[in-house]
Amino acid sequence: MRVAIVIVSMLGVFASIGLGRFALGMLLPSMSKSLGLSYSQMGLLSTLNFFGYLLTALASGMILRYGGTQLTVFLSLLVAGLSMYFIGETETFLIICLLYTLTGLGSGSSNVPLMGLVTQWFESRKRGMIAGILVSGGAMGIVLSSIAVPYMNKLNPVYGWKRGWQFFGLLVILVSFLAFLFIRDRVSLRNGNVRRMTREVFNGDVLLTFGLYFLFGFSYVVYITFLVSFLVNECGMSEPEAGKYWLWVGLLSLLAGPVFGTMSDRVGRARTLMMVFFSQSIAYSLIALKLLFPWGIILSIALFGLVSLSIPSIVAALIGDIVGSKMASSVFGLATFVFGLGQIGGPFIAGIVSDLIGSLRAGFSIATISALLAVSWSFMLWRRGY
Fold first, then answer.
1. Which end of the chain has the smaller Cβ count within 10 Å, N or C?
2. Cα–Cα distance between 30 and 163 in angstroms, integer?
């Protein structure tokens, strides 16, 4: 049963985050060219997705108490998949914004309970590793989109992005039914105590963890949203060439969750977070300064791919350590709400500043500062014994 839970949960993360979120980075260049989108509009699209993600993350504790993980994940992935499919049926920007907001709603209300299953089914010494395996599902989405989108654009240069949305949407719908068949709760979530959760949230350790997750959301989403657009628009690469770089992000990210999740089990959550955020800051700065081109781009992608997607797994395990299995899903839902705030602000602010400056390098500079701040906050968490 545990093996089935892990495999299907990983596929759930692949669908909700890997396709529902990460595929956007590959779809944006051809989509923006076809629709004539500015950097600000591209950033707004990403922001609206995370606005939807944020709303359901905030309400996830209540949703889980009424519906349980199985039904919640099934319905959420179904909504995400249908909305993605219908993006491929329209060219109206406002309708696309509405549909991608719905994708965010489905992604948030499926990803949060899936990550919460880790604490239900596994003891503390294995949580980082198992959460890392689940998070690798997001990297699978990066790998698939980096291969599928250039191929579809080659077959149909004008509307390949539409076929991409429809293909990914159908995959998400398929995973929703797998989740309905195999996902189960180990403990009842129906009697969650709101007063107890309030006490847990105002625990200083939890608040500091929330702050780190906010900074991660704010910075990493700038990278995944604008990297391919930066390579195409400001480095002169073709979309297939940029897709190869994006493919390496995904391939390296497959290792990030399991490797650093396991490391956090052994050397501590905070020490691992310090290492990860410092590596992120170097990755962002190499793009912001456009150092040693093209080798700086390669190093940036290597660093980002190797570490970034490990953070959700470490945070999920950390929250489970702090609050216990019964409260973990609800508190992780609130953490994801804060994470979503960062993801809303990141691409929106980066898009506006980049339009004003005339280069996406400005957005990557903001991401660099955020990652460095997260290093110092991780040190504070280490001083608290984690």
1. N
2. 12
Condensed to tens digits (0 to 9), the pLDDT of residues 106-120 reads 998 898 888 878 777
The answer to whether position 189 is within a domain reads no
Contact partners, residue 209, CB within 8 Å, separation at least 6: 315, 318, 319, 322, 335, 381
Compute CA 201 distance to the chain's CA centroid, rounded to the nearest angstrom. 22
The residue to which tokens 């940036």 are assigned: 300
> Per-residue pLDDT tens for 332-365?
878 888 887 887 788 888 888 988 888 889 999 9
Split into its structural domains, the chain has a count of 1
Domain limits for position 229: 2-184+197-383
Question: What does the alpha-carbon distance between residue 289 and residue 296 come to, in Å, rounded to a whole number?
Answer: 9
CB atoms within 10 A of CB 293: 12
pLDDT tens digits, residue range 12-38? 999 999 999 888 878 988 898 888 888
Chain centre to alpha carbon of residue 85: 20
